[in-house]
């Protein structure tokens, strides 16, 4: 970065003799290598920088003419600041360069109004970006981080190894020891944690609204769900092998093997036929058992009670593995089965054009509850106010006012306050150093030519070694050297830098106090509450669907509401993770999104059972299922209320009592189903009832995880996962 910036600045300033061209050339380099950085493989970085060049040419042109007077510049600054910041909803590739794009607008929007210099500005920008493109590829090139697909493939292999161990342990004469199976379970659990999106570096997360990245995101959630269900089956293998559905787990292992190969090779995701065949084979076996007439003391009478949780855990592992395959197929543009379409289609993005997918993401965030919209409005307001102050009060270096506002405005007052102190200390140190340089060097340009590359290198090196104080100190010295070479140097330059940074910081703090001061931490509770309320509505509507009292499109509307709530929650959670942590809140907030998504996916699957085979034939079983589902839906709503109003707490023992009551009701319902007189004549309907009870059992299990992770004294994540 130092070589690039110095080559561009000195080449334009002393080689071409154009100070304006030199200024815009060096700021183009600084904008996209110091103030914001591109990430990813080299080809991705090149495409990003080319897009920034094209956008920057338009950017500088509009800003040059917007500088005609203060009010035009203020309005243009607000509009442009909002659009660039809000465009971050389109993924990390956009959000990581937004600061650089803002800088390219700020610089020409300041006085003097000089359209005649537009040519030099655009040429300087182009030279800076082109040289940066070249040096990024040839001068100590960064190969980029491992792709997310390769990380997902590694986690898939750990899950496959666990599935293989369970299959081996579930067969007579298996060679996998209990200790080895425990090791594989620990590896799978660790792998599932590593691919949590909040554990993946921001630059590597699949966050764009494209088919590919949406598919990778869904595949990640599906793989984590597969791992957790396999961990449950590992517990079953330890306790009792009698009801372990080995064919299903073997199909999961085979599918995960093919998925890993496709992720590493970039080929199309495998078929789901093996999983479907294994599920149907196991269900046929159960139907045969259920159809046999009972004996005087036949243990099969209670098999649905004893084995339902195991069957559903295996079926959910298979469904999750199937969802992973379909997500990867949808992300690659391949077709998905027809039975996945309709009102509860989880792979809607497979059918959308790139523009439609981007517009969907934008539309989801056009609400005041979106942190992306809040951040964009906050920053745009701060920049507009800073531009007004710089113009109306005639500050000599208004660029520094807006740059301070741009770099110090955070998503919450707490975060802004944390960034303010080191920035001001670093600026003060830099002002002292710059003042000494200006005093000693005077108008001798050679001194600034020598010091500038040293200060610039120090500014870059200070980031990982010294921190923000070092960056601000060195960068203050850099800009003093820079402006002393494009205009006559003056001692006032150093003091103006300090005053302007103070003004810009004050503007950032004031806007932060007035606009959503608590940032993502306050919004996260509301977003989590909306997610759980939407999940409760899904459970309610699924109960209506199962008992055939629901219109066909009702569940589709509920699922769309869940997706909307989850989309806002994901953005809010990501911002929350970037803000200073509240020491009194040890909640694992990711569990809220996980539980919501799983409730919605289970509701869609349960609805498909009813849609394909009609309502259950026994009125009392339907009534019991409906009652249990309503109870669990109400407890989802209670959890939503508890998250939204943390002062209203329920004791841990009370929650444990509620969870045990849920399980007791489900066990009772299963027992009633097992004793149903007509179940032997209707084995398919009986199996669907068993699966429905198993679904409710896992909803109750998720409520237990939610109870453990959404309190101020949450249990460790490993305990909840187990």
Notes on the protein architecture:
α1 packs antiparallel against α7 and α1 runs antiparallel to α18. The C terminus is likely disordered. With 722 residues, the chain is mainly alpha-helical. The chain is elongated. The chain has 27 helices and no strands.
SSE succession: HHHHHHHHHHHHHHHHHHHHHHHHHHH
Count of strand segments: 0
Please tell me what the overall shape is: elongated
- The pLDDT mean sits at 83
Notable characteristics:
mainly alpha, 722 residues
Summed up:
This protein has helices at 2-15, 19-35, 42-66, 70-86, 92-95, 98-109, 118-138, 148-169, 178-194, 211-239, 246-265, 273-291, 303-331, 354-364, 371-392, 398-408, 413-441, 445-465, 468-486, 492-514, 519-546, 554-578, 590-613, 619-644, 652-674, 683-709, 717-721.
Structural topology:
Layout: H1 2-15, H2 19-35, H3 42-66, H4 70-86, H5 92-95, H6 98-109, H7 118-138, H8 148-169, H9 178-194, H10 211-239, H11 246-265, H12 273-291, H13 303-331, H14 354-364, H15 371-392, H16 398-408, H17 413-441, H18 445-465, H19 468-486, H20 492-514, H21 519-546, H22 554-578, H23 590-613, H24 619-644, H25 652-674, H26 683-709, H27 717-721
Helix pairs in contact: 1-2, 1-7, 1-18, 2-6, 2-7, 2-19, 3-6, 3-7, 4-6, 4-15, 6-16, 8-9, 8-10, 8-11, 9-10, 10-13, 11-12, 11-13, 12-13, 12-26, 13-26, 15-16, 15-20, 16-20, 17-19, 17-20, 18-19, 21-22, 21-23, 21-24, 22-23, 23-26, 24-25, 24-26, 25-26
């Amino acid at each position: 970065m130092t070589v690039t910036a110095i080559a561009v600045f000195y080449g334009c300033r002393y080689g071409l003799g154009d100070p304006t061209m030199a200024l815009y050339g060096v700021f183009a380099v600084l904008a996209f290598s110091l103030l914001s950085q591109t990430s990813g493989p080299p080809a991705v970085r090149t495409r990003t920088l080319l897009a920034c060049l094209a956008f920057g040419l338009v950017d500088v042109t509009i800003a040059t003419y917007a500088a005609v007077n203060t009010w035009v510049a203020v309005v243009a600054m607000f509009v442009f600041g909002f659009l660039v910041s809000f465009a971050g909803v389109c993924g990390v590739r956009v959000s990581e360069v937004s600061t650089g794009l803002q800088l390219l607008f700020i610089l020409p929007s300041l006085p003097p109004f000089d359209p005649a210099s537009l040519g030099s500005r655009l040429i300087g920008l182009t030279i800076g970006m082109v040289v940066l493109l070249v040096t990024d590829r040839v001068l100590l090139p960064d190969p980029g981080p491992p792709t997310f697909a390769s990380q997902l493939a590694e986690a898939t292999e750990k899950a496959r190894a666990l599935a293989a161990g369970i299959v081996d342990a579930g067969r007579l004469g298996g060679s996998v020891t209990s200790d080895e199976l425990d090791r594989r379970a620990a590896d799978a659990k660790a792998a599932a944690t590593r691919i949590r999106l909040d554990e993946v570096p921001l630059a590597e997360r699949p966050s764009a609204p494209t088919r590919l990245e949406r598919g990778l995101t869904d595949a990640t959630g599906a793989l984590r769900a597969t791992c957790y269900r396999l961990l449950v089956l590992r517990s079953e293998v330890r306790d009792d092998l009698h009801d372990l559905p080995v064919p299903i787990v073997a199909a999961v292992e085979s599918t995960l093997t093919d998925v890993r190969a496709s992720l590493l090779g970039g080929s199309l995701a495998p078929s789901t036929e093996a999983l479907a065949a294994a599920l149907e084979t196991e269900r046929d076996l159960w139907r045969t058992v259920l159809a046999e007439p009972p004996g005087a003391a036949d243990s099969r009478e209670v098999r649905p009670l004893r084995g339902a949780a195991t069957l559903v855990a295996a079926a959910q592992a298979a469904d999750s593995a199937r969802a992973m395959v379909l997500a990867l197929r949808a992300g690659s543009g391949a077709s998905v089965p027809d039975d996945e379409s309709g009102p509860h289609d989880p792979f809607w993005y497979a059918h959308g054009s790139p523009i439609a997918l981007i517009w969907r993401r934008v539309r989801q965030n056009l609400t005041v509850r979106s942190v992306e919209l809040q951040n964009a409005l906050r920053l745009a307001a701060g920049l507009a106010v800073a531009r007004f102050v710089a113009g109306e009060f005639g500050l000599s270096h208004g660029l520094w006012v807006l740059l301070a506002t741009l770099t110090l405005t955070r998503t919450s007052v707490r975060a802004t306050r944390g960034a303010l102190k080191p920035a001001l200390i670093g600026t003060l140190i830099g002002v002292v150093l710059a003042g000494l340089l200006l005093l000693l060097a005077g108008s001798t340009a050679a001194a600034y030519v020598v010091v500038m590359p040293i200060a610039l290198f120090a500014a870059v090196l200070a980031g990982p070694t010294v921190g923000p104080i070092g960056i601000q100190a060195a960068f203050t010295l850099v800009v003093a050297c820079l402006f002393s070479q494009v205009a006559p140097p003056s001692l006032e330059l150093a003091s103006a830098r300090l005053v302007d940074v103070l003004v810009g910081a004050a503007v950032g703090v004031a806007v932060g106090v007035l606009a959503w001061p608590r940032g993502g931490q306050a919004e996260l509770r509301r977003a989590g509450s909306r997610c759980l309320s939407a999940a409760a509505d899904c459970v309610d509507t699924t109960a209506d669907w199962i008992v055939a009292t629901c219109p066909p499109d009702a569940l589709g509307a509920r699922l769309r509401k869940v997706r909307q709530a989850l989309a806002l929650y994901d953005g809010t959670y990501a911002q929350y993770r970037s803000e200073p942590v509240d020491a009194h809140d040890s909640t694992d907030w990711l569990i809220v999104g996980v539980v919501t998504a799983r409730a919605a996916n289970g509701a869609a699957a349960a609805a498909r059972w009813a849609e394909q085979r009609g309502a259950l034939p026994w009125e009392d079983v339907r009534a019991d299922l409906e009652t249990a589902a309503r109870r669990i839906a109400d407890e989802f709503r209670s959890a939503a209320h508890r998250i939204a109003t943390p002062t209203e707490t329920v004791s841990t023992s009370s929650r444990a009592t509620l969870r045990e009551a849920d399980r007791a009701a489900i066990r009772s319902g299963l027992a009633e189903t097992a004793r149903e007189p007509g179940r032997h004549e209707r084995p398919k309907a009986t199996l669907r009832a068993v699966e429905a009870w198993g679904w409710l059992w896992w909803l109750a299990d998720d409520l237990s995880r939610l109870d453990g992770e959404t309190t101020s004294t949450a249990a460790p994540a490993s305990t909840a996962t187990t």
